[in-house]
TrEMBL record:
Note describing how the cofactor binds: Binds 1 [4Fe-4S] cluster. The cluster is coordinated with 3 cysteines and an exchangeable S-adenosyl-L-methionine.
GO CC aspect terms: cytoplasm
CDD domains, alphabetized: Radical_SAM (cd01335)
Keyword Methyltransferase set for record: yes
Protein name listed in UniProt: Probable dual-specificity RNA methyltransferase RlmN
Amino acid sequence: MMKPNVYDQPYTEWKKWMKEQGEPAFRADQLMDWLYCKRVTAFEQMSNLSRDLREQLADSFTLDALETITAQQSVDGTVKFLFQLHDGHAIETVVMRHQYGNSVCVTTQVGCRIGCTFCASTLGGLKRNLTAGEVVAQVVAAQRYLDEAGERISSVVVMGIGEPFENYEATIGFIRIINDSRGLGIGQRHITVSTSGIVPSIYRFADEGLQVVLAISLHAPNQELRKKLMPVSRRYPLEKLLEACAVYEEKTGRRLTYEYALIGGKNDQSEHAHELGQLLADSGSLVNLIPVNYVPERNYTRTPRNQIFRFQRILESYRVKVTIRREHGSDIDAACGQLRAKHLQIEQRSS
Ligand code: SF4
């Protein structure tokens, strides 16, 4: 049977495990320090743990660093990693440089079954869920990369390949582990989880007592269009989604962010902006406009800059707060899933 990954275990589980080995509880703190502060890659390096304990750890757990298949570096400092998991699957993790700090975008599933038409991640379907530890390992790997420049990760976005609410338990486990101050200590308000709109999970998430940012991938101002762009809307219609969003905001006292990918000629016209403005007028919510990256398989085009600004102005006329996402890595395979899709094509051709 496959040994569990060390990054799957939260601090409370380490304390229990240490007790079972007859070790004092503070060994769990020492272990957390080795894993998340010193970021070692082998149990032998944990020099303040006894040889017996290190062997016991190695017999019970794996401490495999993610293997880098390739890393693409953009002129703007963005780095996109293609990592290999223990079973050979490839996933993407992106480190982005902002004026306010460094953020890392993590993957929660190998592929995705949601089927958003503008997304390269969904093209090969869903292969499997990641464990919480496999998501944590991406943040640790990103931090190891930044260690070389003496920099730190200041925020985490769960917006890479996969729908985090289709892998709910692992996503919650991941948030709690990276938030732990004995671990990476990423503040909850610096963690953003993005969902395509899995309505039952939004209700569930509202009861988790978390302070993270929840982002909803909206991408259309009406059900007809949303159904075409995001098949998930057939299961969870826009009206039901917005009801869940209202309950979430009420229960948590936290405003949602709506993500809106602008796709040339599809959802980026003035009439769409007016419809979206009416839908969210005076809600206090934030709309994040995302100029969509070109996805060759779908033949989607980009919205011209002046049209993006017009869209923004119309939304603001309805007192909706708007940001335009700064492009990262436009000179590399920037769209979510693009690098992995390319890797899969090469593998298929050579097999
Ligand atoms: S946008 Fe997200 S939810 Fe939609 S197909 Fe891509 S990875 Fe899945």
